[in-house]
Amino acid sequence: MSLNTxxxxxxxxxxxxxxxxxxxxxxxxxxxxxxxxxxxxPELIVVAGVCQWFRTIAHDSDFWTTIxxxxxxxxxxxxxxxxxxxxxxxxxxxxxxxxxxxxxxxxPPPLTEQISSSIHISYPNLRYLHLSHYDFQGNQRVVNNIxxxxxxxxxxxxxxCEMLPTDISGSLAFLxxxxxxxxxxxxxxxxxxxxxxxxxxxxxxxxxxxxxxxLCPNLVELNLNGCFRITSTSNLIETLILYxxxxxxxxxxxxxxxxxxxxSLCRKLKRLNIFDIKDCRLVTKSIVxxxxxxxxxxxxxxxxxxxxxxKQRKLEEK
Length: 318
Prior knowledge:
The structure is a single chain. A 9-stranded parallel beta sheet has the order 1-2-3-5-7-8-9-10-11, with no helix packed on it. Strands 4-6 form a two-stranded parallel sheet. The longest helix has 14 residues, at 304-317. It is of the alpha/beta class and 318 residues long. It has 12 helices and 11 strands. It starts with a helix and ends with a helix.
């Protein structure tokens, strides 16, 4: 088929009128709005191509408050097209996932500065950003510093990501802020950030946690579940204690913390509501007495033996 024939056929398709006499076209808008709520973001885009009526309903702002693209992995090229094609001022939550295999190598794709910039431009009112299976290792194509991400976030979830844990060849660690002596206030790039999650990001180490206080000083929730390289160090303890005024939810499941770390944290983090220490193989039942000093603790997530003893001691105190 020649180029002119293809162009002519496309014009004919655009001008073609499809009779809208099916039962679904007789439904009121309110019913379609209810039906469309069960569709994922990619499915909404497909439905919007059916007819102008469906397009109008599918583009209702209620459907775009949350954009979830984690139902399947997308390449960076496809993701860039989506970000440019569907900018939304109403979007508050964005969830994206990289491909598990990038360029035939068994590693996640890089999160480039172009993607980060497009997210910031396309969704100016974004509050919660979920990134999974992305590579933040330092090279010229990658966002190798956290300050390149949108600055007005309240929640940042970097799950199953790879990031630069320490300084290598003079480059900044992923969580380390570049110094700006002329304007120190710019160093507080995430002053509104309350939730930070590194769940199952295996590259994260205890040394990297030390960079958090100047980066996000008002954390309410910190999730280190599955970060098995997090060990009991004085740097880790001192950093977490700096959040004694704000931290309410702390997740340390499957890390290498020990009883001494729990003891130190229970002495200072008196405002904890949720504390997760499940599957920490170096934590024993001897820390239960320390846990009882957390009077505001509403939910303890721990192994069965610790959980059972903690409940028994709580009942005895009553």
